[in-house]
Design a protein that fits this description.
The chain contains eight helices and 18 strands. With 299 residues, it is α/β, with parallel strands linked by helices. The chain folds into two domains: 181 residues, 3-Layer(bba) Sandwich (FAD/NAD(P)-binding domain), CATH 3.50.50.60; 106 residues, FAD/NAD(P)-binding domain (3-Layer(bba) Sandwich). α5 links the parallel β10 and β11. α1 runs parallel beside α8. The radius of gyration is 21 Å and the shape is elongated. It starts with a strand and ends with a helix. The structure holds flavin-adenine dinucleotide (FAD).
Length: 299
């Protein structure tokens, strides 16, 4: 095998498309649990705006199937060993694959958020990124569940989509006095009482109820979940990691370990499907180049 791709989301699939068209032999190992599986629609992907995540993958796999070098495996990669030219990946089903290059495209995963009722609305009327889902909730009364510096940034951004939103910090806000004054100056109501529950009907949020008895009616929620790397495997090979859980890569997806690439959410803090696909495309092209040059030079 030329390349093993771990993860079959937009990043891994676009890499597979590029490699397949370059006549490389590739296996895409994917356990099929993308972060956006809770959503009905993916927005902002040119020519695919509003498509469901599962339909996106179906079309992608159908198109890639035209290239016989690409093989899809529904399985979970559980270990990886070796070095440039001779990697070995073993799956949960106990099958081992060998390849010359390796691409980690395993995305990120949400850590559980302990808010009663949030799971009922996540992906339907509660979202994480205004670029992805802000348009659908424009001008609506929203609740933003955030705290700290990252939360303040999201609060400032959300003003681009609606001027009617309330911040619930669900406990201490972790802001400085200046930051609190800034929010007050912009007339953003802020509550720090813990959230008791989110009430909804058929996935559509109706109100957020706080422990102190406050009730905040709203049509949508944005929140900032804590994230972890979709796979720990890059670390086991010695890949340099960022504090965010992303793999450190250069502009073409190359990690600090020879022959090992990473793309998509796994390798950036900007989590968007089209960005992930673009990173996969670049990594696919770079791996192709490395493979071809190595073969050329060995003759
Ligand atoms: C609620 C929500 C809504 C979103 N809406 C949008 C939107 O509207 N527009 C947009 O552009 N972006 C949106 N995003 C972001 C988008 O989903 C991601 O940026 C994109 O899916 C990243 O693609 P990826 O290929 O890097 O990772 P993913 O799509 O997450 O795919 C990674 C794959 O790797 C698999 N995997 C992980 N570990 C292993 C392993 N060990 N072995 C085998 N397989 C493994 C996973 O199961 C998964 O299938 C949204 C995200 C969320 C959470």
């Amino acid at each position: 095998m030329d390349v093993i791709i771990i993860g079959g989301g937009p990043a891994g699939l676009n890499a597979a498309l590029v490699l397949g068209r370059a006549r490389r032999n590739v296996v895409v190992i994917d356990e099929g649990r993308p972060r956006n599986r809770v959503t009905r629609e993916t927005h902002g992907f040119l020519s695919r705006d509003g498509i469901s995540p599962s339909e996106f993958r179906r079309i992608a796999k159908e198109q890639i199937s035209a290239y016989p070098g690409v093989q899809f495996v529904e399985d979970s990669a559980v270990s990886v060993t070796g070095s440039d030219g001779q990697f070995q990946v073993t799956t949960a089903q106990g099958i081992s694959y060998r390849s010359r290059k390796l691409l980690f495209a395993a995305g990120m995963k949400d850590l559980p958020v302990d808010i009663n009722g949030l799971a009922d609305v996540y992906g339907k009327s509660a979202f994480v990124c205004p670029f992805c889902d802000g348009w659908e909730l424009r001008d609506q009364p929203l609740v933003l569940i955030v705290k700290g510096a990252r939360g303040l940034h999201l609060a400032k951004m959300l003003a681009g989509w609606t001027d009617s939103y309330t911040i619930c910090t669900n406990g201490p806000d972790e802001w400085t006095d200046e930051e609190r004054e800034e929010l007050a100056r912009h007339n953003v109501p802020t509550y720090d009482s813990p959230i008791e529950r989110i009430e909804s009907s058929e996935g559509l949020v109706e109100r957020v109820v706080l422990m102190d008895g406050s009730i905040i009616p709203c049509k949508g929620i944005f929140f900032a979940p804590k994230l972890a790397a979709g796979s720990e495997l890059p670390q086991t090979l010695g890949c340099e990691m960022k504090e965010s859980g992303a793999v450190v890569v250069d502009a073409f997806g190359k990690t600090n370990i020879a022959g090992v690439y990473s793309a998509g959410d796994a390798a950036t803090e900007m989590h968007q499907a089209i960005a992930a696909a673009a990173m996969g495309s670049l990594a696919g092209a770079m791996m192709t180049g490395e493979l071809l040059m190595e073969t050329w030079n060995s003759r």
